[in-house]
Specification:
Elements (H helix, E strand, L loop, with lengths): L5 E2 L14 E5 L4 H13 L3 E6 L6 H6 L7 E2 L17 H15 L3 H10 L5 H21 L11 H11 L14 H11 L2 H6 L3 H12 L10
Parallel strand pairs: 1-3, 2-3
Antiparallel strand pairs: 2-4
Helix pairs in contact: 1-6, 3-6
Bound molecules: glutathione (GSH).
The site of glutathione has 9 residues, from loops.
Organism: Maylandia zebra (zebra mbuna)
Family: Belongs to the GST superfamily. Omega family.
GO molecular function: glutathione dehydrogenase (ascorbate) activity; glutathione transferase activity; methylarsonate reductase activity
Length: 224
């Protein structure tokens, strides 16, 4: 039960989730929603995806989530599913990772660079700032001699960062990794991960969706 079709306004609210599943209100190209889908896949948690039409939101969704945005989840993660821990157990390491996740979620460079380029602005300053952030991440991997951001195996932190890196080529920013070889290797390792493989879209699919979005007619079902 991995992909649901789109639920636009006027659609009936989805029925109850079968026992043992959790519900994920998503949009196929949303990187925030992808973060959760990565974690669910990685932990092998059975889930039902409900793809919400964000340009024509169903009334029932606004009751579930008054902000009308995705993602909405209905079940706790590590707390309820202890089989595969994706968070470090020490509270200090956990807090540190949470801070990193928060920091990552605030990187608006991709969209700012892309729209700046489109408007003919000089985006070299923004690109330099992004490279600086990437070199800090690179340094972290080198100094700690680790393969992933939480250690030698993949953790929540890697999954929280991944959706941006999946889209580097889409935003024509892959050259920003040229000076950060460890980060490049990290992206290669991430591409081997089963949860990443299960949620990834091709560069062409991302581009096609992004174009439809920019044109004002987002094709949320692209590729289905
Ligand atoms: N801060 C939120 C952002 C979520 C978000 O912006 N989701 C977008 C899709 S990628 C959305 O639902 N947009 C619909 C809207 O803004 O009306 C998060 O980190 O989860």
């Amino acid at each position: 039960m991995d992909e649901g079709f789109l639920f636009p306004s006027g659609s009936a609210a989805p029925g109850p989730v079968p026992k043992g599943y959790i519900k994920v209100y998503s949009m196929r190209f949303c990187l925030f929603a992808q973060r959760a889908r990565l974690v669910l896949k990685a932990k092998g948690i059975k889930h039902e995806i409900i793809n919400v039409h964000l340009a024509d939101k169903p009334e029932w969704y606004l009751i579930k989530n008054p902000f009308g945005i995705v993602l909405t989840l209905e079940t706790p993660l590590d707390e309820g599913y202890p089989e595969k821990q994706l968070l470090p157990s020490s509270p200090f390491a956990k807090a540190k990772n949470d801070a990193g996740v928060f920091f990552q979620s605030r990187i608006g460079y991709f969209y700012r660079i892309s729209s700046g380029r489109k408007n003919g602005q000089d985006v070299s300053g923004l690109e330099a700032e992004l490279k600086e952030k990437l070199s800090k991440l690179n340094e972290d991997l080198v100094k700690k001699k680790i393969k992933f951001f939480g250690g030698d195996s993949i953790t929540m932190f890697d999954y929280m960062m991944w959706p941006w890196f999946e889209r580097l080529e889409v935003f024509e920013l892959q050259h920003c990794l040229d000076g950060t070889p460890e980060m490049k290797m990290w992206t290669e390792r991430m591409l081997e991960d089963p949860a990443v493989k299960a949620t990834i879209h091709s560069v062409d699919a991302h581009k096609a969706f992004f174009k439809s979005f920019v044109d004002g007619k987002p094709d949320y079902d692209y590729g289905l």
